[in-house]
Design brief:
The chain is of the alpha/beta class. The chain folds into two domains: about 160 residues, Rossmann fold, CATH 3.40.50; about 100 residues, 6-phosphogluconate dehydrogenase C-terminal fold (Orthogonal Bundle). It has ten helices and seven strands. Helix 3 runs parallel beside helix 4, helix 6 packs across helix 9 and helix 9 packs antiparallel against helix 10. The model has no long low-confidence stretch (mean pLDDT about 95). InterPro entries: 6-PGluconate_DH-like_C_sf, NAD(P)-bd_dom_sf, PDH_C, PDH_N, Preph/Arog_dehydrog, Prephen_DH. Belongs to the prephenate/arogenate dehydrogenase family. Keywords: Oxidoreductase. This is Prephenate dehydrogenase/arogenate dehydrogenase family protein.
Amino acid sequence: MGGSFAKAFAAAGVEVFAWNRTRSTLELAMIETVTGELDETTIPTCELIVLAGYPASTIEWLERYAALVSPGAIVIDTVGVKRVICERCEALCEPYPFTFVGCHPMAGTQYSGFARARANMFKGAPMVVVPPEMDDLERATVLERLKGLLEPCQFGSFTLATAEEHDRNIAFTSQLAHVVSNAYVKSPTARDHRGFSAGSYKDLTRVARLNAPMWTELFLDNADFLGEELDTVIESLSAYRDALAARDAERLEALLAEGDRIKREIEGR
């Protein structure tokens, strides 16, 4: 994620400084993408800082470097949960003359690392924005400036939300999908699927491949909403299982038709 931001800005001719926990990755980025290292000397020169790390590391970076961020700068994150991030980061930034804005780019793949980063990763993608508490005029000014700073990324839309709205929706649209996909491939039959699988298998298993430490943090930080979504899908799956066990064709067809109807309604057709 961070590498894609760096490549998008670099491709637009923006001066980019970066930091990575793995030195070799940073050195590679400095050869082909970034101008230099993001450190105590360069942090005060930045107009926009993008924190593309795990939840805990995002908070830790601000705890360490908030005092160095230049007045008027905007700091954003890319973390997939917002309540824990926004609450902590906004509190950390409150004494300083810059603004923290919670963000979540709705883009990415099942792969990670700088080698997989793309300058066009965010082209046309939605960006969810969780602005801090401030008066309407100040918020509008910050958001307009943020959109301008992010222009090289070519996001397709900006959706404003509260941290709670974000976390409740993302539990369904992202986190639940990762849990279900990850659980799906645990079937013993998965090892024998070659020659028997097509689009359905590929679609459902794409995000089974994931970064386990990162997703563990995200799931636990959103355990309440994700737990509710899991309860719902478990209940639905049980209904299908009961209909199969009873050989109840009428009930099974009704369940399938209901899912088809809901999908068509959601998609508007």
